[in-house]
Structure formats: structure tokens, C-alpha cells
What we know:
By secondary structure, the protein is α/β, with parallel strands linked by helices.
Amino acid sequence: MIGAVLVVYKPDLALTERLLTRLYGQTKEVVIVDNSPTPHDFTKVIKHYHYIHLADNSGIAHAHNVGLLYLLKAGCEYAILLDQDSLIPSDMVFNLSSLLKASNKIKQNVVAIGPRIRCSFSDKKVNSKIQKEVFEYDDLVGVTQIIASGMMIDLSALDQIGLKDESLFIDGVDHEWCWRARSMGFDIAKAKNVEMVHRLGDSRSKFIGVTYKVGAPIRLYYQFRNILLLSRRPYVPTYWKVRCLFFMPIRLFLNSVMQKNRLKRLGFMLQGIVDGVLGRKGPYKSHWK
């Protein structure tokens, strides 16, 4: 049995309802975990779902874990994680689950599989220039990590790998889980011929011809802090550590000089660096007022 965990936060209702319309009927169970301050009702587009309201917003990792634990208790074998910024094809769950099951026949110990991502801003496929493919077999490509939205997980592996790292709160949560799984001998894969539209970041900006993602100022705190936290962990890929640490000064410049709310953004980045150096984890509000 397959279940879905949809995490929302102050959702764009039109986008979320469009996603739920596509999801309806693809899984036996649907859990909507809402991190928004006020609750939402989605019964006009989906009749049968389990709703969990976490008004204090304890992070996406905690939201994922709450949803995954619910699906485990409901007897699900597989879970697909989704967020409000994604649009899935009507056969995505079937295709991903088929590939996940087939991976066992080719002796690939795949515990999570995701689709190819098409960015909604550029309408182009997202291809990593640094991440190398680990293996390739028919419609499967082994990779080092995939994003959380669209990720289908074999729930039986959670006993060994563990749940998502709630201390990270948001940024890097999906990649950290994949790297941890790979360090334990499991494989992570993408489906060659399954594609999902997803919005990465809130907007885009350009500097000397290079396009970069722009997100909410608070996200900069978690991005900078979690780079420093994850860079200490031995199972995190060296290429990721080098790339992220190298680009930190450039991102500091772009977000403090080239964007609106410069001082606010600079403050969040500096606070993230301080907490990353000191090894502080958890939500921002635990350390700063």
C-alpha cells in the first residue's frame, strides 16, 4: 500500500488544490501536514485525507516524520513526499513505485526514488553539473541525492536509516537523509522518464549573466547555518562541501547587495554563520529573538 505526505505552509490554495486533484486516486492514504499558523480545509478537492495541523511550525523535517509515522501505522509499504510547489503527472506514483519494486530484481538496494525535475520558472529540466550518476539501468539512474518533493521512500528502510533530521529544520533535510542512506549501503535513484514540475525558490535574479535563486530572508539563515553544520559530517559528499563553502561569500554578496531588504538578509546570513560555527541546531527562534 502506498501513502502520500503533503507538507504545506501558508499555501497558495489554487496550486495546492491543483496538486491534490492530480494526486487523488494515486495513493490509498493521503496525509496533509500543515505548518501554517491557521488551519486549512481541502475537502472540496479531496474527500478522504488525514489532516495534521502543526501551528507552531517545527520544520519540514518534523512534518515529514509525523506524516511518515502515520503512514507506517496505517500499514503503508511506500510513501511519497510532496510539497505545495509541485505538480505531478497522473501516473507518477504508479511509475515510481513500479521502478522501486523492480530495483530489487536487479540487485540495486534502492530505498528512495524521485522524478526528473522541471523548474516552473525556466520551464527547463534541472540537471546537476557536479553530481555524478552512480549507476544506470534501463529507466533508473543512481544518484547521490534527490529533493524531498516527489521522493518515494521504501518505509521498511526507516528502521535502519532513521527518520529525517529535525535538528536541521528545513534546508538540506532531503539531501542529508539521502547521504545518510548511501553511507549505510543503500541506493538513491531518479526515474529517467518520469518528470515533475516544481518551483525552486520564490523568484529568480541575474548577476553578470548568471541566474540564481532568491528565497525568503529567513531561509538564508538555515541555508548558511546548515552548510556549516553538514560540512562537519563525514558521510556528506566532499564535492558538496567544497562547492557550498566556496560559494558562501558570493551568496553573501548577492543577497546583501543585489536584493531588497539588504540589511535584513545580511542579518539572517550572519546569524546563520554564527550558529553554524557554534553548532547550534533547531529553529531560528530558539537562538534569536
